[in-house]
Specification:
- The chain is globular.
- By secondary structure, it is of the alpha/beta class.
- Strand 6 and strand 7 form a beta hairpin.
- It has one domain: Chitinase A, domain 3, CATH 3.10.50.
- It has a 5-stranded mixed β-sheet with strand order 5-4-3-7-6. A two-stranded parallel ribbon has the order 1-2.
Length: 138
Amino acid sequence: MSTDPSPPLLVSRLDCERIEALLEQPGNAGAGLDRLRDELARAELREPRDMPRDVITMNSTARFREDASGSEREITLVYPRDVDGSSDRVSILAPVGSALLGLRVGQGIEWPVPGGRTIRLQVLEVRYQPEAAGEYHR
């Protein structure tokens, strides 16, 4: 189990391109999004077909724990256009979404959230990953 606040990240090349394009849109600015840009810059990029099954990619469904409270949650990481108001669909632009992208099962990360706090998230399981299901261009 990694306790490094900045664990290694694996991001699919396609996800990275789409997220970078999203970040270039007017109105997408702020400290949280700067951190997402930094994370993308340090990530190891892989072709979608080469993505390990235990990595959180876009449109993956994953279970994680917030260490301070011990609460567990399952979310699907989506693009902003796919957020439908349900609590289990989290935008890549939300702090939790940005924090989880590219992490593997067993990894944890510390991430700033609004209000000046920092949370620590631990990935417990990737229940569904598009790449593992053979969906490479979603």
